[in-house]
Amino acid sequence: MKTTVALIGAGGKMGTRITHNLVARSEYRVLYCEKSEAGMARLQEQSLRVTPTAEAVAAADIVVLAVPDALIRSVSADVVPLATAAATVMLLDPAAAMAGEVALRQELNYVVCHPCHPPLFGAQETEAARQDFFGGVAARQDIVIALMQGTETAFGAAEALALQMFAPVVTAHRITVEQMAILEPAMAEVVAASAAVLMKEALEEAVKAGVPRAAATSFMLGHAQIPLAIAFGAVDSPFSDAAKIAIQYGREHLYQDNWRRVFELDHVRACIQRMLHPGGEA
């Protein structure tokens, strides 16, 4: 028998990518749920029928919440009471789970998964794959996945679905929800994404100082790749002695000595609260 999947937010940003991968999978009966007019239009362009949420969730073995993190609290409050006993609720990000904003039922299973995205130093076979920066279309990537609550059988079924949702997947790394939150937002967004923005701002400072933009951009993107390759062991080459001095100078002037505290769970939770409630509401 086919596994029935209710995809909530099927016409949204993440939902569209998942829809693209599941539409041709014969082992799944996918029910596409969408409330926004733009999202429904995107589904209709693919000749996909929009199923009312209540009808889809009541019929589903697995309910995928492909909605923004800030909406998980309200959407799960509406959806979870409609699910049949032993169904699985899949979240695509750990934020709401860490913040305790997911509606829970003891008889349901909960799984959290998230793509790692195609690696910077990973060979892709085609030009389409090399241009697939997010993954889930042509580029190979890994995923992380966690069992928040429930049975190993339910986890196995959810993992099998996740492998198709984010295909082509090389490895599914099983971790905990807390570990996933350490990876994102702490590692990938608080540290790595803020560093990327800092690099772009540094480029703009070079342009302000009179460097032609084309030259500054070419120099930055080339020189961003080299230290990343050295630091992550993609090349068998150390930093030069002069570069080590410059790196230390940068650390002294750019970073707080206690920057690693962003990985402490109280800081992770504080960041998630700000992400979910940017206006400061509880």
Keywords, please?
282 residues; alpha/beta; Rossmann fold; 11 helices; globular
Looking at CATH, the homologous superfamily of the largest domain is NAD(P)-binding Rossmann-like Domain
Uncertain stretches: none
**Based on DSSP secondary structure assignment, what is the total number of beta strands?**
7
CATH class of the largest domain: Alpha Beta
Distance linking N and C termini: 44 Å
CATH A-level architecture of the largest domain: 3-Layer(aba) Sandwich
Q: Per CATH, what is the topology of the largest domain?
A: Rossmann fold
Count of the domains = 2
The residue fraction in helices comes out at 40-55%
User: What global shape is seen?
Assistant: globular
SSE string, helices as H and strands as E = EHEHHEHEHEHEHEHHHH
Which secondary-structure class do the elements indicate? alpha/beta
Strand percentage lies at 5-15%
Biggest sheet strand line-up? 2-1-3-4-5-6-7
What does this structure look like?
With 282 residues, the protein is α/β, with parallel strands linked by helices. The protein has 2 domains: 173 residues, Rossmann fold (3-Layer(aba) Sandwich); 95 residues. The protein has a 7-stranded mixed β-sheet, with helices on both faces. Helix 8 runs antiparallel to helix 9 and helix 8 crosses helix 11. The longest helix is centred in the C-terminal third of the chain and has 32 residues. The protein is globular and about 65 Å long. The termini are far apart. The model has no long low-confidence stretch (mean pLDDT 96).
Summary, kept brief:
The chain is 47% helix and 15% strand. The protein has 282 residues and is of the alpha/beta class. Helix 8 runs antiparallel to helix 9 (213-231) and helix 8 packs across helix 11.
